[in-house]
UniProtKB/TrEMBL annotation:
It holds the Pfam family EthD. Residues 18-92 form the EthD domain. It comes from Pseudomonas peli. GO terms for molecular function: oxidoreductase activity. It comes from the Bacteria. This is EthD domain-containing protein.
Length: 105
């Protein structure tokens, strides 16, 4: 299984609407990716490892797929719609990482 993580840097003055992200954006993602996406998780950044410092990422979204090929095949036809929704909830420039899940709860 692979995990596609979308990380939103917590830069000074960044705008991020967590309610919209969870309720609206992720609904679009689910609709577009369908059963190819095995699961979704969203993290809201709370703090960094240094006491008193802000979290390095304001939010992270995680999508689970059987393989990179399955992700690419399901995402590509909907990339414009999914990415085009970003201005509705953030002005952060997201980073994407694709990882192989080796250990999970």
């Amino acid at each position: 299984m692979i995990k596609v993580s979308v990380l939103y840097p917590n830069t000074p003055g960044v705008r991020f609407d967590m309610t919209y992200y969870c309720e609206q954006h992720m609904a679009i993602v689910r609709e577009c990716l369908g059963s190819a996406c095995q699961g979704i998780a969203v993290d809201a950044g709370l703090a960094s490892a240094t006491p008193g410092e802000a979290a390095p990422y304001i939010a992270m979204g995680h999508l689970y797929f059987d393989s990179v090929a399955v992700f690419e095949q399901s995402f590509a036809p909907h990339a414009a719609r999914i990415m085009g929704d970003l201005p509705n909830f953030t002005d952060s420039q997201p980073l994407v990482q694709i990882s192989e899940v080796r250990l999970a709860p």
